[in-house]
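AB hydrolase-1 domain-containing protein
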Amino acid sequence: MPELALTQLAGDDDAPRVLVVGPSLGTGAADLWQSCAASLPADLQVVGWDLPGHGASRPTAAAFTIDDLASAVRDGATRVAAGRPAAYAGVSLGGAVGFVLAADPGPFGAVVTLASARVIGTPEGWHDRAAFVRKAGTSAMVAGSSERWFAPGFLDRSPSDGGALLMALREVDDESYALACEALARYDARDRASVVPLLVAGGSADTVVTPDQVDVVLDGVGHLPPIEDPTATAALVLSHLEENL
């Protein structure tokens, strides 16, 4: 099972409820979720997890699966929640983890997936990207990610927010990123029936997971809702929690 770092983003251990948030490939949870976490109420302890070689998590050279990540998140959340009601929200790859958790939730009573689907891309595409990153490094992903991640005009409106994510991408461990690509190549949650309330949401301008693949659409948002529209994302997540947690 991969070793994943957990980082507190908002609230504290005395909060009556816990929200665990997950990142997209190439991002750290704090960079992606911090603004959104600040928009959530004080009765939520918000904790983010990082992929291997991303953010606060150490690199790995060992292969892992989306199920392995879900198991590590489930175990970490069980320790953090310590019996308190808990929910999960994840973006893209973090959302893929969410689909697995919705079927085998452990401590989670509700799940939100953002810019994610039960299958993302194609195995060939993910294997090609893994090979490319092993050859050229994650810095070579910056140009393409700037187009895939954000709705048109976002980088002009919020150059510091978007720029910080793209700068952090350069620091992601190459092999860990490649292994995450290979995990997505093997990922398929189409046979996983949800046993807790699941909200599937995404952006109207997302070209990776398109609006027809989700149930709730955030207007003017691309592939990273928590950074592109933190207020609307926080409201969406909170509404699902209030209804189900």
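thats it. The beta strands are 6-10, 17-22, 44-49, 86-91, 108-114, 198-203, 216-218. The radius of gyration is 16 Å. bye
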